[in-house]
Design a protein that fits this description.
The structure holds 2 protein chains of 2 kinds. By secondary structure, chain A is α/β, with parallel strands linked by helices. In chain A, the strands form 6 sheets. In chain A, strands 6-19-18-15-13 form a 5-stranded parallel beta sheet. In chain A, strands 2-3-1-12 form a 4-stranded mixed beta sheet. Chain A has a 3-stranded mixed beta sheet with strand order 8-7-20. Chain B has a 5-stranded parallel beta sheet, sandwiched between helices. Chain B contains 9 helices and 5 strands; from the N terminus they run H-H-H-H-E-H-E-H-E-H-E-H-E-H. Chain B starts with a helix and ends with a helix. Chain B folds into 2 domains: 80 residues, Orthogonal Bundle (Methyltransferase, Methionine Synthase (B12-binding Domains), Chain A, domain 1); 117 residues, 3-Layer(aba) Sandwich (Rossmann fold), CATH 3.40.50. Chain B is α/β, with parallel strands linked by helices. The chains are: A alpha/beta, B alpha/beta. At the A-B interface, helix 15 and helix 16 of A face helix 4 and helix 5 of B.
Chain lengths: 480, 207
């Protein structure tokens, strides 16, 4: 069948039941909101607010009004229209985001981890600009700038080095306004930013069911500047959420829907891209696992639930890993997880470049993931059956014992197959002549080649000066 | 410039257009041997390069070879008049007991495309047939393939048979289980792991 292959961990009846549980959490229990101004706004807008406990509940009518208001189709825009992303993906395929907040990059030359720096993150952004299958550049954490303004420095690096859509988030309450100032400076005006918001910004739940001051400030300013939000839930099954998959999916959805409802109450029509970023807590070690079989299924379940219950584009952490190097475990986990989540309906697969844990990344892994995405996209695209692909004439022409290599049909289709360079196997002798290199070694070579062809964006000098001055001002105001 | 058109036509695998372009060059005064070397062979050299870099795929190479041969058919009579025939003669076949055809045939096609006279004996070829055909056509190269370990020893048998008959011919081997180590042990002159490698090897052995 042509189109995207699908897996459905949940039946329609199960989705309906889970939807009701999700609504029940928000109507009966509510969420805790640690932001006085937000409490005031939400109370005025119709939420049920307890100013003493900071608990906010929403009526079913409010929830369903908000879910009706939020756009079902979004154009996720970066600095250049050629990189605009249609959501949901028009081919029922998916887009790919890099991982977020990394503090350490694996250095292939030293075979060791090193702090992410202004320089290495700059290179990372420029790599993304050139990689064909990486669509979204997520914020990382340069460690050689002041910690208080690392997010501001990072966004400035993103804006000056890639024109692809950005995924950003604030690291502290005080830095939130500076992030929007930077976006405004790069866009040129409030109207220009509204037309081309350059980024989606993550407010993130403090699971379970708490929203920090920083995240509400993010939503308030996103509403003011019409920048899409990407509300994220990082429920950890067994730790900050139920250990069971359906319970995890319900809690994830409740947290995300709460953020969507709050945003719609403040700014009806603001685009929202739900982010399913849950992990599984290993009951033996206490470690958070991304690609355990249980979490693979949990992510796919969350993807299907959010997609089908709320009819919104879904962004899922589906390219993580639990190994700390780019080894077989890493690739096996990423491959399976990204394929499963894509087949469950994910519109954006998140985590390219990620190694194990929450703050390790690798530019070499980023290149491997770039090629892996091409493989997964081809697989989930399914099979097209028509007169041409049935090839009956060609079968009859080749006849018994004939060859197909010399058939026009073969020539016409010989470029259809995806052949990501890092994964294509040479004949044994050729492979040996090239140094008997494994996937990682080939990717290191590709990385060394790719980094020779990197450049900053060509931005007007006055825009760059303005952005640099905002970063400088943030440093002056926020760094003790 | 016109030679470039012929080369482009071949690289695009345009079997219909290539003969007309070659004919036009002859009518414009170009000599056949120059067309052969600077257009036809040059195009296939470029095709081989593109295959090795992944810019062209095997079916495209085969269509290029067909286009090249269509052009070659136009100039062949003139080349013979000038005593400027093909680059050399290659007898090729799958050894006795092996019925795998496609790899061997691919090599045969690519050698033809590269300008060699190729006598393709097919598969399951008896040792005596290799000997008799090589003698009859005064072959420069005998190319043998097999995809089975069980029939690999036939290669060594054939080499010894032909050499014992006193023929001045070189042997090249190929096929999935074959290696350079085996080729050396069997007394062959060369080994190639794929079709472009076989063409390069034949060129090298032909000096």
């Amino acid at each position: 069948m042509a189109g995207s292959l699908r897996i459905e961990p949940l039946t329609p009846s199960e989705i309906s039941t889970m939807y009701e549980k999700c609504v029940q959490i928000l109507t009966d229990h509510g969420v805790k909101v640690d932001h006085e101004k937000a409490l005031e706004i939400l109370g005025t807008a119709g939420a049920l607010v307890d100013r003493d406990t900071h608990m906010v509940r929403f009526s079913r009518e409010t929830i369903e009004w908000a879910l009706a208001e939020v756009p079902k189709e979004v154009v996720y825009k970066g600095g250049d229209a050629k990189h605009d992303l249609l959501l949901p993906h028009p081919d029922r395929s998916f887009h790919t985001s890099t991982c977020i907040q990394s503090m350490l990059y694996h250095d292939p030359a030293a075979n060791a981890f090193a702090d992410v720096t202004h320089e290495s993150y700059t290179e990372w952004c420029r790599l993304i600009e050139n990689l064909p299958n990486i669509d979204i550049c997520a914020i990382q954490t340069p460690m050689d700038v002041p910690a208080e303004t690392a997010d501001v420095h990072a966004l400035n690096i993103q804006l000056q080095n890639t024109s692809k859509p950005l995924a950003i988030l604030a690291y502290c309450l005080e830095s939130v306004p500076y992030l929007f100032e930077l976006l405004l400076a790069r866009a040129g005006s409030a109207e220009a930013l509204k037309d081309r918001p350059l980024a989606a910004i993550h407010p993130t739940a403090l699971s379970p069911l708490v929203f920090k001051e920083m995240d509400l400030e993010t939503i308030i300013l996103a509403c003011r500047y019409a920048v899409p939000i990407a509300p994220a839930s990082l429920v950890m099954s067994g730790g900050t959420g139920p250990i069971t998959i359906p319970g995890t999916a319900v809690l994830v959805a409740a947290e995300i829907v709460a953020m969507i409802v709050m945003a719609q109450l403040m700014c009806p029509g603001l685009p929202a891209l739900p982010c399913v970023y849950n992990y599984g807590l290993d009951m033996s070690t206490g470690n958070a696992l991304m690609t355990s079989p249980e979490n693979l299924l949990a992510q796919a379940t969350g993807a299907q639930f959010l997609k089908e219950a709320f009819a919104l584009p879904v962004w899922v952490s589906s390219m993580g890993g639990d190994s700390y190097v780019s080894d077989g475990q890493m690739v096996a986990g990423k491959n399976l997880q990204s394929a499963m989540c894509a087949m469950a309906g994910t519109d954006i697969n998140y985590g390219a470049g990620r190694l194990g844990g929450s703050n390790l990344a690798s530019p070499v892994q980023l290149l491997i993931d770039d090629r892996m995405v091409a493989n997964v996209k081809r697989v989930i695209a399914g099979v097209e059956v028509n007169e041409d692909t049935l090839a009956l004439d060609t079968i009859l022409t080749a006849g018994s014992g004939g060859h197909y290599l010399r058939q026009r049909h073969t020539r016409d289709h010989c470029r259809d197959a995806v052949r990501p360079d890092l994964f294509v196997a040479d004949p044994l002798d050729t492979w040996q002549e090239k140094g008997s290199k494994d996937l990682y070694a080939r990717a290191v070579d590709a990385y060394e080649e790719a980094r020779r062809d990197l450049a900053p964006l060509s931005l007007p000098e006055d825009v760059k000066r303005e952005m640099d001055s905002i970063v400088k001002r943030a440093d002056e105001h926020l760094v003790p | 410039m016109a030679f470039e058109e012929i080369k482009q036509s071949i690289l695009e695998g345009d079997v219909d257009a290539t003969p007309g372009l070659v004919r036009a060059e002859l009518e414009a005064g170009a000599d056949a041997s120059t067309i052969l070397s600077d257009a036809l062979t040059a195009a296939m050299d470029e095709a081989g390069r593109r295959l090795s870099t992944g810019e062209m795929f095997i079916p495209e190479i085969l269509f290029a070879a067909d286009a090249m041969k269509a052009g070659l058919d136009i100039i062949k009579p003139l080349l013979l008049d000038d005593a400027q025939g093909m680059k050399g003669t290659v007898v090729i076949g799958g050894v006795k007991g092996d019925f795998h055809d496609i790899g061997k045939t691919l090599v045969a096609w690519m050698l033809e495309g590269a300008g060699f006279e190729v006598i393709d004996l097919g598969v399951d070829v008896p040792s005596e047939t290799f000997l008799e055909t090589a003698r009859e056509h005064d072959a420069d190269i005998v190319a043998m393939s097999t995809l089975m370990v069980t029939t690999m020893p036939m290669m060594e048998v054939n080499i010894k048979l032909v050499r014992a008959a006193g023929l001045d011919v070189k042997f090249i081997l190929g096929g999935a289980p074959v290696s350079q180590t085996y080729a050396d042990r069997a007394g062959a002159d060369g080994y190639a792991s794929d079709a472009p490698g076989a063409v390069a090897l034949v060129r090298e052995l032909m000096g």
